[in-house]
Amino acid sequence: MDALAQRTFNSGDSFIVDFGNHYTGYLAFHVGWSGKSSDAPVRLRLTFGEVPGDVAEPLYPYKGWLSASWLPDEIVNVDFLPQQVRVPRRHAFRFVKIDVIATSDNFSATFSDISVGAVSSAGVDRGRPARYDSPLWRDIDKVSIRTLHECMQTSFEDGPRRDRRLWVGDLRLQALTNYVSFGNHDLVRRCLYLFAGLQRDDGYITACVYEQPAPRIGEVVLIDYAVLYGSILLDYYRATKDKQTALELWPIAKRQIDLALKNVNEKGMFTAPEKDFVFIDWQESLDKQAAIQGVMIYSCRQLTALGDVLDLSSETDAYAAGIEKMIRAATRDLFDARQGVFISGKNRQVSWASQAWMALAGVLSQPLAAASLTKVMGMPAAVRPLTPYLYHHMVDALVASGARAEARRLVEDYWGRMVNAGADTFWEAFDPQNPSASPYGSKQINSYCHAWSCTPSYFIRTGFAKTKGDK
């Protein structure tokens, strides 16, 4: 920074500042001048980068299908020099590129005192292990915790750069990691109530909710997200023993399951509704029939477990028959005994997603589930995940099936590759076979600090062991 203050910059010049780590917050800097006269404004373009490519490669032309307004750049005009500048918008970044678009022929711009006012509601990491098995495990844990830290604001944001809002699926994974690190239970509780207070007219919670400028409902229901609300509430109760909150939110959790079960036909098979959607993963080629069947079974089991600890078993007894019916349908229509894996859809697609969710649902015995998981990982034609969200569930399924060694290897191989690629925080989407892949048609719009990728710390700090009470 001292060397920077000695330099002068004219129209067309640029420089990049590296803050050394990822920060969410507000950029500030001092702009001065040198020359005959500061007789015109200085116009700057600020480009904020979570990864080097954000500032080393052009943002435009942009051809993605998400709004270009998410692209992390600003045009700043400073009318009078010298001036202290504070960018009013919050950004998420490690790097900042400052392009001097225009000064005048009479002066050059100077820059000094560049800083970031970082913000987070995370607090202190109280769960850091005393030792790690290797430097790689230490670094994976460090990057995981930094990812969560940056996403913890006034709610658990999915990404502090984009989308800056609260999603059900992300919340579930963030909360799990929070319980073994920062322990900010109030933030989890706040997010649970945000969803509960913003239901759709029919009682469904939407996949996301907006917090600013005032809380409001999201546009879309993702059924696989909605039914996991009860699982989030169960995890919250296990971590806090806050029975009052769990009882107050119980009707919302139960309502999600009851609504989703209307899409299960008389044979016990989930059929996708016309109005709402199923996510599972951003992998475009993924058939989701088997995975959502597993999500439904898993979520019903989780709600039943929540009812048990809240002394509300009388309200969940009726689910037992439905769970068994869905399990029979899954084993009858979706399990290929010859291959030893679950298939999905009319083309009998084999995917990691199908095996992961069926294993978590407990459809097969633990040895058979472990066999299907390890087998699919060795099948080149099987559809792989695109996002850490689905990779989390694959790791979780391996743990639940007793395949701890395979779970550890998968974390090392997938998240470890991001660490080795220089990640300060873990990314929204990462395909090791196609690192530039984007769910949105352009890597410029990708988020490189994304909440659903923070869970290696959860696995590391729980010793890759099943959570107490899991099926």
TrEMBL record:
GO MF term (any one): hydrolase activity
Domain spans labelled Alpha-L-rhamnosidase six-hairpin glycosidase: 135-460
Transmembrane segments: none
Alphabetically ordered keywords of this record: Hydrolase
Domain named Glycosyl hydrolase family 78 alpha-rhamnosidase N-terminal: residues: 2-117
Pfam families attached to this UniProt entry: Bac_rhamnosid6H, Glyco_hydro_78_N
Highest taxon of the lineage: Bacteria
GO terms, biological process: carbohydrate metabolic process
Protein name: Glycoside hydrolase
Taxonomic source organism: Acerihabitans arboris
